Amino acid sequence: MKIGELAKKVGLSVSKVRYYETMGIIRAKRGDSNYRDFPPESEGLLLLVLQAKDLGFTLKEIQSLARALQQGALTKDKLRSELTKKLDALDERVALIKKFQKNVREILQSTCPFGVESKSV
User: Fold this and answer.
1) What gap in Å lies between CA 75 and CA 14, rounded to an integer?
2) Cα angle value 117/120/121 (rounded, 5°)
3) Looking at residue 70, what is its pLDDT?
4) Which end of the chain is more exposed for a tag (fewer CB within 10 A), N or C?
5) Under 8 Å between Cβ of 62 and 25
6) What is the pTM of this model?
């Protein structure tokens, strides 16, 4: 599959597909005319990248998962473990954001936020 066709199928720009290729997430063979020829599984890998990004995975984490998948080392247990780690990290971030929200609400409800007095004009 040519790069333009692959990009269109997954909804990415050609340059983004090239970027993921340079990261080693997908691989292409070069044909006689030196055009990239991507195997059919490249589409699935790129869709995995997009889904993983939506789940909050970093590109480095995605690269590691893609490599494991390509090598046949991505088991159901490993994937569950990675998803659990990501969920725990997201829970920590949510808790921190809730703390920030609480602090901002308290400041807004105070009579004199940060000790700033209102001035009459």
Assistant:
1) 30
2) 135
3) 82
4) C
5) yes
6) 0.70
